[in-house]
Each structure stands twice: as structure tokens, then as C-alpha cells.
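G., before I forget:
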Amino acid sequence: MSDPTTIRRLYGRRQAFALRNRAQRLVEDLLPEVAVPKEGALDAARLFGKACLLELEIGFGKGEHLVAHAAARPETGFIGCEPFLNGVTGLLGHIEDDGLSNVRVHDGDALNVLERLPDASLERVYLLHPDPWPKARHAKRRFVNPGPLDLIAAKLKPGGEFRIATDHPVYMRWSVMQMARRSDFEWLAEHAEDWENRPDDWPPTRYGEWAAGEGRPIWYFRYRRR
Ligand SMILES: C[S@@+](CC[C@H](N)C(=O)[O-])C[C@H]1O[C@@H](n2cnc3c(N)ncnc32)[C@H](O)[C@@H]1O
């Protein structure tokens, strides 16, 4: 596995707008209760106070996808990572509205959390509509790159699943190419319908809904950790 310190990086904005009253309250009151500790080793017991299955979403946006899974499977612990503070408050609002106790939130780089989890500890990792960085000179910024993929491979259990969705043709081709080079993941697709259609157990995301609303194709990739 590549040295995680060589892949630590975060691109993009942290905050777009001043937080409104509710958002401010959620950040001050709820975030400390559900935040992933900023330092030290992580596991289910530290995060959820018990042994449980763990899943992690990288860049959850406003959190719709993560919350749908968390509500459907209350015994599984979900870790959401998102540096964009206006997105974090979106997820916090869902957690409060739905009374969810099985979600933990990291308001920063997913790599920082992945690094601190035990190897072979995650059932699933989700990377949905990652920032495409379409220019070739920015390709190293894409999350789908050998360093982050090595880390995801290490943290997934054998048989665990890595899910990628994108509506960007450059990112689609890039992801297929990067993943095809790897012997540690098996692509779970047999027919074109498998990547052209959103599976039933795959809740929509905000970016996915935008793309669909504009009639753009979305590609859904499921990879099993060998
Ligand atoms: C295009 S948005 C997609 C959001 C959401 N997944 C969706 O489909 O609606 C990509 C998100 O990834 C987040 N992101 C970028 N780099 C990240 C990183 N290293 N760790 C966690 N999130 C990251 C960005 O802040 C942004 O909110």
C-alpha cells in the first residue's frame, strides 16, 4: 500500500454561504455528539459504543444517500466524510429529523478517517459523483487513483463492496481504467444494464438527481474486494 502521507490532500471549498440559524445550531450542538474523533485509532466500539458492521461514504454531499441506508439498516454503523460544511449541516439536519443514532460524521478529508480504521473493517465504501477534475493536468486530484484505492482496498473486508457512481464521461473512463488495473477488486457487472441502471438498494444522491433531471447518463459501478 502506498504511504498514506503521500496521498493526503483535499481540494475544493469548505464553505459556500454563511450558516443559517438551524445550521449553526446543528454544528454547535449536534456535530460534537456525532463527530468522528479527530485523532487516534478508530473502530466500531469507539465510534458507536458497540461492535457493529461499518460502512463509509466519501463526499456525502448533503447526505441523502447515507441517511437512506442508515434508516434502512439501524444496526449498521455509517461513517460519512465531507469537508464542505454546508453539506455537513445537511446531513446533520437529516440525522436530527430522522432521529438516527447510527451515523457518525467527519467534516473533513475521508482519507484521514480511512487511515485510522482497522484493516478489513468495512463492509462497504461509497464514492458517489466524486469531483471529476476533468482536465488531464488535474487527474492526480481524482479520488480514484492508486493511493486512495490502496487505502480503500486495505480497509474493506474481503467480500466487501466499493461502489462508485459518476455522471462524468471522463471520470467514468478513468475509473474503469484504474479499477481494471487492480487484482484486488472484481467488477460485479455482467451486462451493460448493470452499470447503466441504479440498483434497487442504491438510494439516489443530489448530484445523481441533477444529472438524471438533465437527461445525462449515470454510470454505477460495484466492485467486490477479493
Ligand atoms: C460532486 S460532489 C457529490 C456529492 C454527493 N456524493 C452527491 O452525489 O450528491 C463531491 C463531494 O465530494 C467532496 N469531497 C471532495 N474531496 C473529498 C475528500 N477527500 N474526502 C471527503 N469528501 C470529499 C466534496 O466536498 C463534494 O461535496
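The chain has one domain: 15-225. The pocket of S-adenosylmethionine is lined by residues 10, 12, 58-61, 81-84, 87, 109-111, 128-131, 205-208 (CB under 6 Å).

More on Monday.
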